[in-house]
């Protein structure tokens, strides 16, 4: 199975389990995350929901190009982009804090998954970045919209997006993108981070999360995401994108 979902203490953890593909997202992972989000949304005892990757090399390397490169036109790409963008929006709207446990590199769509979360815990060796620009497309799963809606500095957010490069953990912490770093095992870091939630009644945690969601909705987050998806789909069918992906896949070979 390409993913795992289990309860851990008072929380739930979704794990992308494709280490041989650097935890790239395929259709099975999408469906698994969608089902996990739906289940978590109906569990009133939860205090948090976390997302991580199997193994120590990657949190998520984005979409699986070996699968998604078959999509050539905007009409073909749009349903995939819309599906994942909707899943991440629903995940971000969970009534409890959502945590990205970034145990390894998070690039492209992996960075978008992390940005849809409320908190980002980053291992000291991890590198993260919105590298979509190197493939001649924009973020297409809502990553830019989530980032701009949550970032303390629009200038820092815009620079991260337009530079299309990876950033070391220290830089991510300094910019505020990462909530905190860790050097020990991911499970230990997660337990340490959520420990303060254990003494707080779930109703209080959910009330504060609802306040954060009201702020994002007031900023028109969903509308921003729809426009972002449409723009990515438009660029997806351009020859520049297909050439860039072809060069990338040939380089990997």
Automatic annotation (TrEMBL):
<dbReference type="InterPro" id="IPR018376">
    <property type="entry name" value="Enoyl-CoA_hyd/isom_CS"/>
</dbReference>
<comment type="function">
    <text>Decarboxylates ethylmalonyl-CoA, a potentially toxic metabolite, to form butyryl-CoA, suggesting it might be involved in metabolite proofreading. Acts preferentially on (S)-ethylmalonyl-CoA but also has some activity on the (R)-isomer. Also has methylmalonyl-CoA decarboxylase activity at lower level.</text>
</comment>
<comment type="similarity">
    <text>Belongs to the enoyl-CoA hydratase/isomerase family.</text>
</comment>
<keyword id="KW-0456">Lyase</keyword>
<dbReference type="InterPro" id="IPR001753">
    <property type="entry name" value="Enoyl-CoA_hydra/iso"/>
</dbReference>
<protein>
    <recommendedName>
        <fullName>Ethylmalonyl-CoA decarboxylase</fullName>
        <ecNumber>4.1.1.94</ecNumber>
    </recommendedName>
</protein>
<dbReference type="Pfam" id="PF00378">
    <property type="entry name" value="ECH_1"/>
</dbReference>
<dbReference type="InterPro" id="IPR029045">
    <property type="entry name" value="ClpP/crotonase-like_dom_sf"/>
</dbReference>
<keyword id="KW-0963">Cytoplasm</keyword>
């Amino acid at each position: 199975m390409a993913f795992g979902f289990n309860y851990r203490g008072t929380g739930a953890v979704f794990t992308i389990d494709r280490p041989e593909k650097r935890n790239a997202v395929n259709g099975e992972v999408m469906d698994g995350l969608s089902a996990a989000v739906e289940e978590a949304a109906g569990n009133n005892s939860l205090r948090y929901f976390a997302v991580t990757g199997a193994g120590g090399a990657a949190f998520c390397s984005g979409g699986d190009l070996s699968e998604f490169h078959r999509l050539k036109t905007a009409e073909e790409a749009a349903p995939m982009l819309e599906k994942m963008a909707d899943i991440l929006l629903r995940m971000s709207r969970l009534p409890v804090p959502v945590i990205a446990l970034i145990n390894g590199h998070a690039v492209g769509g992996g960075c978008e998954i992390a940005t849809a979360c409320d908190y980002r815990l980053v291992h000291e060796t991890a590198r993260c970045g919105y590298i979509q620009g190197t493939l001649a497309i924009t973020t297409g799963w809502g990553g830019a919209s989530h980032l701009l809606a949550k970032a303390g500095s629009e200038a820092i957010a815009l620079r991260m997006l337009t530079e299309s490069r990876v950033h070391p953990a220290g830089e991510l912490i300094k910019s505020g993108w990462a909530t905190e770093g860790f050097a020990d095992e991911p499970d230990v870091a997660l337990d340490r981070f959520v420990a303060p939630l254990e003494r707080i009644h779930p109703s209080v945690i959910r009330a504060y999360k609802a306040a954060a969601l009201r702020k994002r909705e007031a900023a028109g987050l969903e509308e921003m995401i729809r426009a972002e998806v449409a723009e990515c789909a438009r660029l997806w069918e351009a020859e520049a994108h297909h050439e860039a992906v072809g060069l990338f896949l040939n380089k990997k070979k």
